[in-house]
Write a structure and sequence with these properties.
With 185 residues, the chain is mainly β. It is 11% helix and 42% strand. The protein contains two helices and eleven strands. A hairpin with a 2-residue loop joins strand 8 (141-147) and strand 9 (150-156). It comes from Sphingomonas paucimobilis NBRC 13935. This is DNA, contig: SP651.
């Protein structure tokens, strides 16, 4: 990524699966994390490489790239091994940390919330009443998106059952939770 301002690359991750054209390779370059007052941040670069299908992979050249930001609520010493959450475009780092703080208040009973819940799986999540926050505490957040009236977090494992937690900025003590199975594509 010659000519691109980026931090030290700590990891090269070639995503498994996917369908690329011959000679096209997608990869993620993960920067070394930085400690902040709120936690840890790092950038992940998605890079598309082009290569002659008959050449060795090390001859591939970067063609396109874009960056995303990831955050983790962790002590500075834990930044290298923390569980990071992807911030979708439109979510600032400070907003992401505030949403993770709000999620922790819900999951660990630090505040009272009015919970609205729907479950399209057989997990019976919504039938657990007061234990719903306990169930959420066992799921890792992995994505934060902005919504018209607040923020949406996805918890669980990407590609598997998704538990969506939606906070509404107009009613901060209300939360909407839904669990569903994502489309298979």
């Amino acid at each position: 990524m010659k000519g691109v301002d980026h931090g030290r690359i700590e990891a090269f991750v070639a995503p498994a699966g996917g369908i690329n054209a011959p000679g096209v390779i997608d990869a993620n370059l993960v920067e070394r994390p930085s400690a902040t007052v709120q936690g840890c941040t790092r950038r992940r670069w998605t890079v598309r490489f082009r290569a002659d299908p008959n050449d060795a992979l090390d001859r591939a050249m970067p063609k396109d790239h874009y960056q995303t930001t990831e955050i983790a609520r962790a002590k500075p010493s834990r930044c290298p091994t923390a569980d990071y959450v992807h911030l979708n475009p439109g979510v600032e780092t400070s907003q992401g940390f505030a949403v993770l703080e709000q999620l922790d208040r819900l999951r660990f009973g630090k505040a009272k919330f009015v919970i609205q819940c729907t479950d399209q799986t057989n997990s019976e999540l919504c039938n657990r009443g007061a234990k719903i926050p306990y169930e959420l505490a066992h799921l890792k957040p992995w994505n934060i998106s902005a919504s018209p009236n607040g923020f949406v977090l996805w918890l669980g494992t990407p590609g598997r059952t998704v538990t969506e937690v939606r906070f509404d900025a107009r009613e901060p003590n209300h939360v909407s939770i839904s669990r569903n199975i994502p489309a298979p594509f």
